[in-house]
Write a structure and sequence with these properties.
three-stranded mixed beta sheet; single chain; 48% helix; six-stranded mixed beta sheet; alpha/beta; 12 helices
Length: 271
């Protein structure tokens, strides 16, 4: 079974993250296949609008940490190796910004960690009222989500979410703050995304591509692209910090569920 499924309906195509048993967590295979699917649809003149969505109970819970690094986490990866790895991940997450046609993110269930970059970089987003848009439950990494979220919700709230592990927004708040266009009942997310895409698809494709380039040009001149590029460096830097190495070591030793409970109970305050 492919980890990414592509569905077509006239001028609208859907890219479906298809690891429902892992809540669509990204691993190397999903990163690669997802990028390839977007690139193929971006080059297909029969497609005017792309919807990105997740199969099963969640849009995506971000990086797959079911098998955390051994030892004390990132200690065995150099900063340069980490930077190269992260650049590839950012390229995949932000591919919806670079694909030449409009992308609508249909977000339901959970959208966590690095996966939040997809709706943040998409042209439009529809979220569920009960959708949880969440930061990592442990303070591991941190040079990526905060800076990119500022463009949608402003620096004060973005910093609060970034500084506080396990912080989150629910769908209505995400729409109210401008992170999403609409918040609707969970069962209506895909229908609303398809409705929006159908209206967009009425505009000729060449005009849509020009409109997207014009709109993205404003963001680029505001530093959006430069911020994306710099995120890999900041995240690689934080991975070399003593605090991050210690936290990733706790995760490796305990596993995600136990480490989450330990952190929530204030275990990290004993360091």
């Amino acid at each position: 079974m492919s980890v990414v499924r592509t569905e077509r309906n006239g001028k609208i195509a859907e890219v479906v993250l298809n690891r429902p048993d892992k809540l669509n967590a990204f691993n190397d295979e999903l990163f690669t296949t997802y990028e390839e699917a977007l690139a193929e649809l971006g080059a297909d003149d029969s497609v005017s609008v792309i919807i990105v969505r997740g199969e099963g109970r969640a849009f995506s819970v971000g990086w797959d940490v079911s098998k955390p690094p051994s030892g004390n986490g990132y200690a065995h990866r150099t900063a340069h190796e980490d930077w190269l790895r992260l650049r590839g991940h950012i390229r995949a997450f932000s591919a919806v910004f670079d694909v030449p046609k409009p992308v609508v993110a249909a977000v339901h269930g959970y959208c966590m960690g690095g996966a939040t970059l997809i709706p943040a970089c998409a042209d439009l987003a529809v979220v569920g009222d009960d959708t949880k848009i969440a930061w990592p439950v442990l303070p591991i990494g941190g040079g990526m989500l905060g800076p990119m979220t500022m463009y949608a919700i402003g620096p004060k709230k973005a910093k609060e979410l970034s500084y506080t592990a396990g912080s989150h927004m629910m769908g209505p708040e995400a729409a109210r703050r401008g992170w999403a266009n609409y918040s609707v009942p969970e069962t209506a997310v895909l229908d609303k995304a398809r409705e929006v895409a159908t209206e967009i698809a009425k505009t000729p494709l060449d005009m849509l591509e020009i409109k997207k380039r014009a709109a993205n040009d404003v963001l680029v001149r505001q530093g959006f692209r430069e911020t994306l590029d710099n995120c890999a460096g900041w995240d690689a830097l934080i991975h070399t910090s003593a605090g991050n190495r210690w936290m990733s070591g706790q995760l490796s030793e305990m596993g995600i569920s136990a480490a989450r409970a330990w952190y929530a109970e204030g275990g990290s305050l004993t360091r």
